[in-house]
Automatic annotation (TrEMBL):
<dbReference type="GO" id="GO:0016491">
    <property type="term" value="F:oxidoreductase activity"/>
</dbReference>
<dbReference type="GO" id="GO:0005829">
    <property type="term" value="C:cytosol"/>
</dbReference>
<protein>
    <submittedName>
        <fullName>Aldo/keto reductase</fullName>
    </submittedName>
</protein>
<dbReference type="Pfam" id="PF00248">
    <property type="entry name" value="Aldo_ket_red"/>
</dbReference>
<dbReference type="InterPro" id="IPR050523">
    <property type="entry name" value="AKR_Detox_Biosynth"/>
</dbReference>
<dbReference type="InterPro" id="IPR036812">
    <property type="entry name" value="NAD(P)_OxRdtase_dom_sf"/>
</dbReference>
<dbReference type="InterPro" id="IPR023210">
    <property type="entry name" value="NADP_OxRdtase_dom"/>
</dbReference>
<dbReference type="InterPro" id="IPR018170">
    <property type="entry name" value="Aldo/ket_reductase_CS"/>
</dbReference>
<feature type="domain" description="NADP-dependent oxidoreductase">
    <location>
        <begin position="16"/>
        <end position="312"/>
    </location>
</feature>
Length: 323
């Protein structure tokens, strides 16, 4: 991969593509996950992102098993998340200090390590005062169980609020903001990206391929077995619409002209956006990941970038655009 990048104001140096593990322990078994990590490391990647809710903890257990099987812990910038909880099959949040510290300890046990390089607050919890949440942040950093802390799925004002509250503390500033960001989801450019870049947070986009839609695999329709899937409708369905179809056609056109796949074109567009440090790529199989990694160093010509910018431009207005 191309030259590595610094994550925000931290001393964490990461590769320009991170490896996500959201399917590990569900649709990706241990052998396939281990193969994915090996392929990723072979290309020079070093950022592995997980969470305590991925596979109900199984993704972290797999990573711990890999460390036990010989994957060197110090070869990775290891990131995990706490605060996200699943209640009756629906996502919720618990950012109380007691819960966060208990969740971090459980993650470390599953991962088989005494610290993570990046601990991310997975969701905003409106029920818990921010000061209480940040008590857990301070404790985690002072104890050495987390080197740096970031936020995930925070809005612009939430990102700014937590940064202001954390400013001036001995534990230092937060390092990153992880958000959904792709050609199909550019809403974060209105508030989150400006907040993060002005505060010195590195942006880690999740779902950089529009939840798979930008690969163009649904261009000619959705397989019947998926149309009946409740999860598919919830997770992918939001990006199956006329606007997304127009963007996908533009991506296919640009990719064809440049002799690369739609996956490579979509990631190249995102990787070099302002503030972006490392899109987090994931795959169910090693073959899918190989396609992604094959174009890790591809740079998109400015003309083609402008075409994709224009067709995917998010709606803007007051107050983002002054009157």
């Amino acid at each position: 991969m191309e030259k590595s990048r610094r994550l925000g104001g931290s001393d964490l140096i990461v590769s320009p593509l991170g490896l996500g593990s959201s399917t590990w322990g569900t649709t990706t078994d241990y052998d396939s996950a281990r193969s994915q990590l090996a392929a990723y490391l072979d290309t020079g990647g070093n950022l592995l992102d997980t969470a305590d809710v991925y596979g109900a903890g199984e993704a972290e257990r797999m990573i711990g098993r890999m460390f036990g099987a010989g994957v060197p812990r110090d070869s990775l910038v290891l990131a995990t998340k706490s605060a996200g909880v699943i209640i009756d099959g629906r996502p919720s949040a618990n950012a109380s200090s007691a819960y966060l510290l208990s969740a971090l300890n459980a993650s470390l046990s599953r991962l088989g390590t005494d610290h993570v390089d990046l601990w991310q607050l997975h969701a905003w919890d409106k029920k818990v005062p921010m000061e209480e949440t940040l008590e857990a942040v301070d404790t985690a950093i002072i104890s050495g169980k987390a080197r740096y802390v970031g936020v995930c799925n925070y809005s612009g004002w939430q990102t700014a609020a937590v940064a202001v509250s954390q400013a001036g503390k001995n534990t230092g500033p937060l390092a990153s903001a992880q958000v959904e960001y792709s050609l199909l989801e550019r809403g974060v450019e209105r508030e989150v990206v400006p907040a993060a870049t002005n505060l010195g947070f590195g942006i880690l986009p999740w779902a950089p391929l529009g939840r798979g839609v930008l690969s163009a695999k649904y261009r000619d329709g959705v397989p019947e077995e998926r149309t009946n899937s409740r999860y598919f409708k919830w997770y992918v369905g939001r990006h199956l619409n006329d606007r997304a179809a127009r963007i996908v056609e533009a991506v296919v056109s640009v990719a064809t002209e440049l002799g690369v796949s739609p996956v490579v074109a979509s990631l190249a567009w995102l990787r070099d956006r302002a503030g972006v440090v490392a899109p987090l790529v994931g795959a169910r199989t090693t073959e899918q990941l190989d396609e992604t990694l094959a174009g890790a160093d591809f740079c998109m010509p400015e003309e083609h970038r402008r075409r994709l910018d224009e067709i995917s431009a998010p709606r803007r207005g007051y107050p983002e655009v002054s009157i």
